[in-house]
Each structure stands twice: as structure tokens, then as C-alpha cells.
Design a protein that fits this description.
Pfam families: SBP_bac_1 (PF01547)
InterPro entries: Bact_solute-bd_prot1 (IPR050490), SBP (IPR006059)
Largest sheet: 9 strands, mixed
Number of domains: 2
Signal peptide: 1-23
Strand content: 5-15%
Keywords: Signal, Transport
Distance between the termini: 18 Å
Protein name: Extracellular solute-binding protein
CATH architecture of the largest domain: 3-Layer(aba) Sandwich
Length: 431
Amino acid sequence: MKHKLAFSLASLTLAALALSACAPSTGGSTGTDAEGDEDVTLTVWSWRTEDADVYNAIFDVFEEANPGITIDLQTFKNSEYTQILTTGLTGTSSSGPDVVQVQAYNRIQPFIEGGNLVPIEDIVDGLDNIDPAALEASLGREDGKIYGVPFATQAIQMFYNKGIFDELGLDEPTTWAEFIDVNEALADGGYTPIAVGAKDDWTLPIVHSALATTAFGGDVFGDEVRSGEKDFTDPGFVQSIQVMKDLQPYMPADVTGVAYTDAQTLFIAEQAGMFPGGSFEINFFTTQNPDLELGMFPVPPVDGSSMSEGVVTGYQDGAFAINAASAKQEAAAKLLSWMTTTEFGQLFTDQTAQPSPVLGVSASDPLLKEILDTYNANPQKYLLYTDFRWGTPAASEIFNPGLQSLLLGDLSAADLAQQVTDGVSQWLTTP
């Protein structure tokens, strides 16, 4: 479903929340729940190591307004987080988290189905202050209940270094031919044109979405696949995969051996002209290099595309949820209730330069505002992440390593498209 990142002002009152009747009496970090006067420490887990300082500053605001509740934020490397979280939520250790950052769509479902998370409609206030499309990403597929407060609606586009573009006399490209010319000029100027780290295959669909959504036609194509009119062997989708291979000469040498963090460093160090990525990169880039002049543009339509303009794609990054094994669900619910307020949403957007799904929040960062304005002009989904991960195997389980094999030269675009089709057909029901 297309949706705009719309914002409308609302005010909320935080209320005292009762313990959930199903909450066990063990689990979570040390401390006593906030029913009496005793202090509580809430352990919060996140995969956003880059934003740890920012989150701590935001949580300081909550702690000041809620004396007696302390937030202990613990962040983990994103590539290791899923396994760590699985152990923390399903293990028998009492050192697990109270509140967890969970990924959206199909990634939250195993924890819901396993009874590891608490449905929050009856214990968290203010959910009607959240973009409904954002809430959908944290619904239980079987019971339709809400299990998390979404924290960011991310957008994917091409970032570029304005200083390098000015040095080489380059403008933002508006056609595919101009985009190729920009890549050539960057390479001739001694820069890596496109900073990509293909060693971490989870990043490759983001790169694909930024570079090639126009090749397959965006959301219209997704509708056609769900209706049975098309599948992933459609020439447009095959072309979108081939775009990745065709642009490989403009990526770092031996790109499959380059880590995501290496690609970030290449761009931050101003050795690369462009970086295809999500809005979640802005704060990290500018914090690491305050002199970096960031710009953005939607990559122009691939030749032969049915789309007339480049697009920015969007998705829900994840949500904060409550561990069912936590003994501190009253305090946890109070924290999540605060996360639905305009105060939190505005702090989050201002401090992380990421768009909050809380209604009433606006982007003060000029670059983020440009991203949101571009997205809202023609909102398109980060399609394989949002729409084709609901069965086994999820499209991304095939596509992510498949793109890596493509860049290694071990798989053709047509063969990868067939693999995705065969995998998704095992569970996708069409009319």
C-alpha cells in the first residue's frame, strides 16, 4: 500500500500502566518493577551501534521526566544482532533485555509466534498517533495484534559528495546517460564512483533498490506479481538485476570482499563520490565527517523503464517491543508510550536525521526534508523487503546472496530471477 510520510500535530498524556496479567515474574535486567517507589533499570537492546550516543541523549529526556526509571542501552553489531536477540528472548538466562529493537515485516514474526513479545494495544497509550502504515509492519500475521512501536520510516536513494561534484563540475543526473557520465567523470577524477560493500549481502538489495527500481516498475510490478500477472522472470526485473552487474566497474575493486563499514569509510573519507543507501546513514556520515557536504538524488530511470522519473523507495525499519519474559512491563510500557508522542518523534528525527512515523513530526534537517519531499511526490516500496518476505523461503533469503553471486560472476541475472520466482512460488498465493 502506498503511503505518504504525512505528519499532523497531536498531544498525549502518559498514564500509569498496569502490569500485564501474563507477565512472568522473572527475566530482564536487575531491579524491581515500578509499582512502588523502588527504582527500575530497563535494559534496551538495539542494533544501531552508530546511534548509541544519540539514543542515550534521547533517553535522558525520558529519564528526567520519569524519575526512578533508568535506561540501560546496549547496542550490538547489526550482522550479529538477530542471533543475539534470539538468544536473549528465547534463552533461559535472566540477563535478557526488557525492551528490544526488532526488525519489521517477517523478521518480527518468529518472536511473535514464539510468544516472546507482548501485544501492546492494551498497555501502550498513543498508538493512534502513529502512521497506520507504519504500525502494519509490526502486526502479528495470525492474530492481527500490534507488537511494537515503530521508530523510523527509512528512505533509500543515492547520496553524493557535493564537494567532489563541484570539484569535477558535475550536476545531479536527470537521465540514465547522464548518470553513466557522472560515474565516468568520477572514475577519471580518481574517485570510486559508487561506494558499495558487497561482503555483507544484506546491503545489496538496498543498493539494488536505489539503482534499479525503475527498471522493473516499482509498486506496479509488485501488484502484478501478487495478482499472478507477472513473476520475477519478467524482463524488467531481470534488467534490474543486470543493472547491478553493469555498474560493477564503478564500484570498489573486488567489491565482494569490501565490507559495508569499509564502503561507509570510503565515502566518509571522501574517496568515493556516491553512496546508495538509506536515510539512516545521514547522522553517521555527518557525525564522522562534519565537513562532508551531502546531497541526494533519485537515480534516473533506466533506459526502457516505464517510469518517467527516478524514485525514492521506503520501508519501516523496525519497532521497539517488550520482552514477554521481562518483569518490568509496566515501566517498559511507559517507555513505549512515550515513544508514541510528538516529543519523542521530534527528538528522534532531529537527533538521528531519520524520519519518525509519529504524526505531527517534521524534518528540520534540509537534506532529510528533501528526501521526504522526493519520496512523498511518488512513494514507492523497498519491494522485496516489504512485500515478499512472508513465506519460506523469503525472497530476500534468495536475492541477497544471489546478488553477491552475481557480482562474483557465478550467477546470471536471468538465473537469479528464476531462483527468486521458484522460491516465492512455494508460498505466494495468487488469484
